[in-house]
């Protein structure tokens, strides 16, 4: 395949990978947890991204032909660790897709005054669309993704500009209403907004010049961090997060208060487009990951099935069904999005812990890479305790993965005997 990404295209794609659904809901949820001090959570995770991204890009450039962060972990710690991170990725989509759907439903339902039940029904229908597209073998093109990313960035900038005049100084007092530990708790949620940097590793071989990779990375990180911090600032300063609708759809609420209802409805439509694009991409990649893991014998062989169009249809349908179950649990168990998001976010944090520890081992001979990896790994590990009971999710996934590997290993031993 001919390398074709320029510096500008790479920066745009990296920005699009990370600047996704997190901005639509997290400023409100983080502010409800830590109040004005949630700004420190956004700043801390932004700074954490610097050594993390540097270490990832260094290894991506070194192993420009590998298949992602799973390969990094496998090179560092062997096949079992590589299988475990694959399970984490798959499980993250198996429970996190419903969060994205509910986000889109919240953005449509908030300005239109929909009931909770109506929003959940919309979320369920919203989940069907990417399934149909994937089963038909359709993919969102790179150019469309860039257009969507540009639309997101433009929407956020417009929102921030129109909201700034409504910011009030008294909204930032008291600065720490829920104690210092709330900053860490909010950081766990904020981590979701920065998930996606691991995806850039597979894009490195597409660059025309390897020197552009690091430049594109720093440009996208700077843009993302500034936009996130600015949006969190206006969300707190306008006290949007204090209303119920502002918690679920702060961007729409900000647009409503600044411009009017029409802007809120428009925001909801654009948010749905964003969510649909994110779901389509991650469903396609996670379904293929499930197929690959089954093909390699580290997941149940039932997932190893392709349709006539070359689509891993069983893996796709499994992901759909698992998220329907999560949606039902959220509805009947009255689990809000702010709590639901902890499961995929904690899985993502565990992925980053494994990846950064792998970076420490693989980059140890390089002084700068070594310290960047150590700082990144220490920072990721520092976030883990704040996930609290949500750590049960990766614990269960780990037990399932290791149990499956043990059973299949014993089965092979019996066959060989």
Automatic annotation (TrEMBL):
Its main location: membrane. One of its GO terms (molecular function) is transmembrane transporter activity. Gene3D superfamilies: Amino acid/polyamine transporter I. It is a multi-pass membrane protein. The keyword Cell division does not apply. The chain crosses the membrane at residues 6-27, 39-61, 81-108, 120-137, 143-164, 176-197, 217-238, 259-283, 313-333, 340-364, 376-407. It comes from the Bacteria. The keyword Chaperone does not apply. This is Amino acid efflux transporter. It comes from Longispora fulva.
């Amino acid at each position: 395949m001919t390398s074709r990404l320029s510096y500008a295209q790479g920066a745009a794609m990296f920005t699009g990978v990370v600047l996704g659904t997190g901005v639509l809901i997290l400023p409100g949820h983080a502010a409800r947890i830590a109040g004005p001090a949630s700004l420190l959570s956004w700043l801390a995770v932004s700074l954490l991204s610097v050594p993390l991204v540097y270490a990832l890009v260094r290894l991506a450039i070194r192993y420009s032909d590998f298949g992602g962060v799973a390969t990094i972990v496998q090179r560092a710690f062997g096949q079992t660790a590589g299988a475990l991170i694959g399970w984490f990725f798959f499980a993250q989509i198996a429970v996190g897709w419903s969060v994205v759907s509910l986000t889109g439903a919240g953005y449509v339902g908030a300005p239109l005054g929909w009931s909770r039940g109506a929003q959940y029904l919309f979320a369920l229908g919203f989940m069907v669309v990417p399934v149909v597209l994937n089963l038909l073998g359709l993919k969102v093109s790179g150019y469309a993704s860039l257009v969507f990313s540009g639309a997101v960035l433009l929407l956020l900038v417009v929102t921030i500009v129109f909201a700034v005049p409504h910011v009030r100084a008294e909204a930032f007092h008291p600065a720490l209403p829920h104690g210092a530990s709330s900053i860490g708790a909010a950081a766990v949620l904020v981590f979701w907004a920065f998930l996606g940097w691991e995806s850039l590793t597979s894009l490195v071989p597409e660059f025309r010049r390897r020197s552009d990779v690091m430049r594109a990375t720093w440009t996208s990180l700077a843009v993302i961090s500034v936009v996130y911090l600015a949006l969190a600032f206006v969300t707190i300063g306008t006290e949007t997060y204090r209303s119920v609708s502002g918690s679920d759809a702060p961007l729409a609420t900000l647009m409503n208060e600044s411009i009017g209802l029409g802007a809120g409805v428009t925001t909801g439509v654009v948010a749905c487009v964003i969510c649909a694009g994110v779901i389509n991409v991650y469903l396609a990649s996670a379904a293929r990951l499930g197929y690959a893991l089954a093909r390699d014998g580290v997941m149940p062989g039932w997932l190893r099935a392709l349709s006539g169009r070359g689509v891993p249809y069983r893996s796709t349908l499994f992901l759909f069904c698992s998220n329907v179950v999560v949606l039902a649990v959220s509805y009947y168990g009255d689990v809000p999005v702010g709590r639901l998001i902890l499961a995929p976010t904690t899985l993502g944090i565990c992925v980053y812990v494994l990846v950064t520890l792998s970076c420490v081992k693989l980059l140890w001979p390089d002084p700068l890479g070594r310290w960047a990896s150590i700082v990144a790994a220490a920072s990721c590990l520092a976030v883990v305790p704040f996930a609290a009971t949500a750590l049960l999710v990766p614990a269960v996934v780990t037990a399932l993965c290791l149990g499956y590997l043990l059973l299949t290993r014993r089965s092979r031993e019996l066959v060989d005997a």
